[in-house]
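User: Predict Chaperone protein HtpG's structure from this.
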Amino acid sequence: MAKHQFQTEIGQLLKLMTHSLYSNKEIFIRELVSNSSDAIDKFNYMKLTDDAFKNDDWSGQININLDEEDNSLTIADNGIGMNEEDLMNNLGTIAKSGTKAFVENLTGDAKKDSNLIGQFGVGFYSVFMVSDNVEVITKKAGEDQAYKFATDGTGEFEITPVTKEAHGTVMYIKLKEEEKEFLTKARVETVVKKYSNHIAYPIMMHFKEDETTGEGDDAVTKKVKKSEQANAATALWSVSKNDLTKEDYIEFFQNMAHVDEEPLKYLHNKVEGGQEFTTLFYIPKVAPMDMNRADYTSHIKLYVKRVFITDDDKELLPTYLRFVMGVIDSEDLPLNVSREILQDNKILANIKQNATKKILQAIKKLKGEDADIFTSQYNNLIKEGIYTDYINKDLLLDIVKYKSSTEEGMVSFADYVSRADSEKKEIYYMVGESEQVLRNSPLLEAYKKANIEVLLMDNKNEDTIVAPMIGEYKEWELKDITAIDAPDSKTDEEKEEISKEFKGLTDRIKEVLGETVKEVRTTSRLTSSPSCVVKDNSSPLAGMEEMFAQMGKAMPETPLYLELNPEHEMIKKLDKLENADIFADMAWILFDSAKLSEGLEPKDKSAFAARVARVATEAL
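Assistant:
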């Protein structure tokens, strides 16, 4: 008998299960049944691919035994089972730090937090909401030795060699005195139908029920053992859409996603003809917790003729659709398909292409609040798709949304085009650090004055790369307002005259700033600000700082133009300023404050502060 200490985070988790996550205790049945179903899936696949099991007369089944006399509930399956190493890895520790992530994401809302249990792979521990004495007896398929895992949930567990005839797992749960409701047939059956009705294997309930024989004084009542199937045991996706209700789809999603809320959208499609396959996809209302992690978990299960193959193939859908959950069931792949066969498989490539288009078309049709929810959760992934999926670029451009300089909320390109000048066919945009920086940018002033809408792309790291790749939307060219002349009523001759008038000033400022700026020039794009900075978009460095930053590499800044507002009182006074020291300070202040307005930092903050202090002192 070997005693072990639980991993530190698991000790934390056990306390949470016991003392905090108590509002939805029934989910322990959902989690344990789901684990049993996964174990049966794995053995089913082994039976098809391993010669040692091909002739095994076996069919998957989950058994739930209710024992009121012993105050215990047992959940058993004939799945793949576990050996000692599996018990250590799956129950004693969490190899992928799922427990730590779970604890970090707790909200304090017991109902919401109970939904996190399955999402972070810690479903087994939910049993400690109703029990403080759990035994797991298990034998792995193909191995001779069975093991018992036992714990009272306080910090230690034991693993002991035992005897068990068949492969699979039996979980013996001694219920707490106050949890006897989970020994009644009606209560457990309700939970199974609620969460696990469409688990593909029969869930058999075994219980004792009063049965009376005889009549009158001769009547005798005794407990009789009975067994009933508690679930429909149908692969939901294989059932005709006409025979399913909205509630059926919702229940299946809730079991798959380990949540209580409804999905944002579901799509059930059957394709027949050259290739036959069925897909059932869900878009959750809330993004999966690991969506933005490099080691995200795939939420798509691949089946062949209703036989589970894998849930770990991230190539079944494009990476940017990693929030989609569901099932792909092919009629054409071989049942003994290997992971190697899955790679570069033409059948799967066609399914992927078809499924991607169907999903994007469904997203495009979302309206009102549903569309707003989708945008709030997944808009950045749609942008990711724009620069990774050229084939579906047009659909993605119909879906992606941005903030606007003139409208509230998020707007699509179609929204913008419906309001814009149809003769020019130009969509104006601006990329920056944040919405606040963009809205306060001097570069917007002329567009505000002319009542021209500008899209505000405030995810700088991503939008700097994505926006130039978009190029155009349905023959409407995207224009970066930092790279073009602003709307202006002045003629070229008038602009030339102003440039000549202030040439002395621009030359003096350029002399002070030196190579820090590419050029100092007058502009008509400003209405209330004295100056602004504009990137040299002709430079090969333009738009690449963020790309290099993401790769952890430093590179020179893109050259900047300093533009002056010749109608601003400060510029007019500066043109007449003779004090060389104050002039130099003001030149730098104009440049650095213009950078700050664009979310850029002065190279030397201390020097900037000192210059402001000197100029302010002089003015007093």
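The chain has a mean pLDDT of 87.
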